[in-house]
Fold these 2 entries.
Entry 1:
Amino acid sequence: MSPNEDVGKIIELNEDLIRNNDRLAEQNKKVFMDHNIRSFDIVGAIGAGKTSILEEIVKRISKNKNILVINGDVATRVDADRIEKGGAKAIQINTARECALNSYHISQVLKNIDIENYEVVLIENVGNLICPSDFILGVETRIVVVSITEGEWVVRKHPLLFKMSDIAVINKIDLMDVIDVDLGKMVDDALEINPELKVFTTSVATGENIDELMEAMNLDK
Ligand SMILES: Nc1nc2c(ncn2[C@@H]2O[C@H](COP(=O)(O)OP(=O)(O)OP(=O)(O)O)[C@@H](O)[C@H]2O)c(=O)[nH]1
Ligand SMILES: [Mg+2]
């Protein structure tokens, strides 16, 4: 087999993986819709603040809404434990060598849990700005989270994920005094990649713009 044929096979295999993922994502979407469940995929950089933002959301609405959080990580139950401390049900998925959740992971959770008990499903994807791009999960809204500590260029270096998201969060703005970034430029980069994006600059440390983010998610009431 020539190297060109090899490349052809690899591309075909990837296309099959994405097609299969899309098919299961459609099924997940139907489960969410049939049960009237609000669903979110929170993707983004390692350590950007995904779990911290989820903790804030849980803190604000868990008294009024039944929330299920699905945490994706390569290893450990650290994030699920953090969420459960805040009073929401959390399921940890460890992906081992895989660098993103896929729709099969979510379909297995939906199959094995009494999903009709929940009104909101928040999925925290594995911290990664590349792998999750093509692997949609069947949710209503995708939120990409980065923070200023990844540097001013983090947005424009990862256009695909910003193109394929509905909301973008640039977190840790409380550190503006110690990190030399042009926040306005980061926001402009996100909007240049995807003019439809709703962009929020947030701080979990001070609470800045977390309510506004939740309003955009329509989770404020
Ligand atoms: N200063 C500051 N620190 C923050 C903020 N948000 C999160 N952190 C801190 O950043 C670290 C990582 O936050 P996490 O919420 O665990 O980030 P994550 O994106 O869930 O990380 P992974 O799941 O490992 O990819 C923690 O020490 C948080 O306390 C913020 O707005 N400001
Ligand atoms: Mg996390």
Entry 2:
Amino acid sequence: MKVLQVEKISKKYGEKENAVNALNDISFSVEQGEFIAIVGTSGSGKSTLLNMIGGLDIPDSGEITVRDRRISGLSRKELAVFRRRNIGFVFQNYSLMPVLNVYDNAALPLTFDRGGYVDHEYISELLKELGLWDKRTRFPNELSGGQQQRAAIARALANKPAVLLADEPTGNLDSHTTIEVMGLLKNSCKRFGQTILMVTHNEALAENCDRILHIEDGMLVSERQGDGI
Ligand SMILES: Nc1ncnc2c1ncn2[C@@H]1O[C@H](COP(=O)(O)OP(=O)(O)OP(=O)(O)O)[C@@H](O)[C@H]1O
Ligand SMILES: [Mg+2]
């Protein structure tokens, strides 16, 4: 089942001599449960692409469809709801709420939505799966980088998103923790059929994904299969 379709997306920032074509006519589609790596040099447009798919920014032209929902026509308010219900984000810098403990950070996206209904059983399952159950009452500043990133992954998965968007999720982690976090992402892909798009500069990690999209100068220059291990 197709979960994401990106059709001829373009985005320009700035005007005249300062203009940057951040994305240039990019098209691809993603099946449910695929783990996609997005690679490319710095400034090639990877984060811009994720931001468009996640509805954080709006393309100048083209169409993005998530779970049969075209997002280009949505108002700001509708986009916010769309994001909460369909998209999970994981960033390089964890971006947890410092005043909330691990459990409440993970449950946060749910408390904003669905009339405040939180599936506590699912949150608990996620925290156990991610090896964070013992740390559930800890605050972010009491955790290691890897633990913080795992908490951020729990939060991103809490609303069972159609697509998990991860922008350099292991960029700040040592190699041991990188392997661990990557294993958790793979596991959520295999176990829950979670669709993941991950930006990475780490070639070995990219090779382990199902498919590798290579972006340069805002264009999709190549697309190939990874090992999918
Ligand atoms: N809000 C913005 N305003 C102006 N220019 C922007 C904006 N966001 C991105 N750009 C430009 O668009 C291009 C693509 O940026 P983007 O952040 O997508 O690159 P990237 O591939 O994620 O790079 P990196 O690997 O360094 O994170 C760059 O030239 C950048 O300077
Ligand atoms: Mg980036």
